[in-house]
């Protein structure tokens, strides 16, 4: 099958390579000249045979909105746009209405797999009509992990791919997936910190590695933590600063809107905010209050720190 792919970064570039290995033709466009097959979106559309399928894999937000809008001016009725970034699901619904007016189909695809997807395959959560998804199904099948077999040797359906519902359902599913990911990473990080904090444990990386087989907390994330500790046993080369790319916030927002208790995911999101503070104003207030009501000692700011200009 032929596919136009817009965005050839870490994810998009690997996806293009996996598709080509699977026998598909990929025409790629990127702002970087060294990566692309064509030098513009009009040239990409011109290089594809109708009905066209174009996958957008650029950063969420304005870059995605601008790309989808331009494709809406270039594509023809019967073509399909797949948006595979980490967009907010409500943006997908706006894009769908805009493209439907022109007879162009739209699919939102939540993609998980990171830089390992080239070899291992990607987990795909898509939203759209059955007709549009069917047009792109060969692409999804090439990107997803190999379908495993059950004990009787029968292929297990649904592994690594789901048509989650109408437009918006794909990115909503990926949003929740990433919220869960936040909480899992936070739990592993807290466990690591406790192991490292006590003198009793002499081999922290070894303990973490021992959990990867036969335990109920084994996972791919845990395997990646083991890999990180092998490269840097005390994580001395990494600053304890964690960004959030939006999905964790949106997950908590939806939990509030739908009255779903989500204390663990919410706490993991707030922990990332804390990681960006060298000197937490909240904890300054907590320390001051403890001193006021109980006379508890506080740690004074060093003179040279106090004299820093504002």
From TrEMBL:
<dbReference type="GO" id="GO:0004616">
    <property type="term" value="F:phosphogluconate dehydrogenase (decarboxylating) activity"/>
</dbReference>
<comment type="similarity">
    <text>Belongs to the 6-phosphogluconate dehydrogenase family.</text>
</comment>
<keyword id="KW-0560">Oxidoreductase</keyword>
<dbReference type="InterPro" id="IPR015815">
    <property type="entry name" value="HIBADH-related"/>
</dbReference>
<feature type="domain" description="6-phosphogluconate dehydrogenase C-terminal">
    <location>
        <begin position="170"/>
        <end position="309"/>
    </location>
</feature>
<comment type="similarity">
    <text>Belongs to the HIBADH-related family.</text>
</comment>
<dbReference type="InterPro" id="IPR013328">
    <property type="entry name" value="6PGD_dom2"/>
</dbReference>
<dbReference type="GO" id="GO:0006098">
    <property type="term" value="P:pentose-phosphate shunt"/>
</dbReference>
<feature type="active site">
    <location>
        <position position="174"/>
    </location>
</feature>
<dbReference type="InterPro" id="IPR002204">
    <property type="entry name" value="3-OH-isobutyrate_DH-rel_CS"/>
</dbReference>
<dbReference type="GO" id="GO:0019521">
    <property type="term" value="P:D-gluconate metabolic process"/>
</dbReference>
<dbReference type="InterPro" id="IPR036291">
    <property type="entry name" value="NAD(P)-bd_dom_sf"/>
</dbReference>
<keyword id="KW-0311">Gluconate utilization</keyword>
<dbReference type="Pfam" id="PF00393">
    <property type="entry name" value="6PGD"/>
</dbReference>
<dbReference type="InterPro" id="IPR008927">
    <property type="entry name" value="6-PGluconate_DH-like_C_sf"/>
</dbReference>
<protein>
    <submittedName>
        <fullName>6-phosphogluconate dehydrogenase (Decarboxylating)</fullName>
    </submittedName>
</protein>
<dbReference type="InterPro" id="IPR006114">
    <property type="entry name" value="6PGDH_C"/>
</dbReference>
<dbReference type="InterPro" id="IPR004849">
    <property type="entry name" value="6DGDH_YqeC"/>
</dbReference>
<dbReference type="Pfam" id="PF03446">
    <property type="entry name" value="NAD_binding_2"/>
</dbReference>
<dbReference type="InterPro" id="IPR006183">
    <property type="entry name" value="Pgluconate_DH"/>
</dbReference>
<dbReference type="GO" id="GO:0050661">
    <property type="term" value="F:NADP binding"/>
</dbReference>
<dbReference type="InterPro" id="IPR006115">
    <property type="entry name" value="6PGDH_NADP-bd"/>
</dbReference>
<dbReference type="GO" id="GO:0016054">
    <property type="term" value="P:organic acid catabolic process"/>
</dbReference>
<dbReference type="InterPro" id="IPR006184">
    <property type="entry name" value="6PGdom_BS"/>
</dbReference>
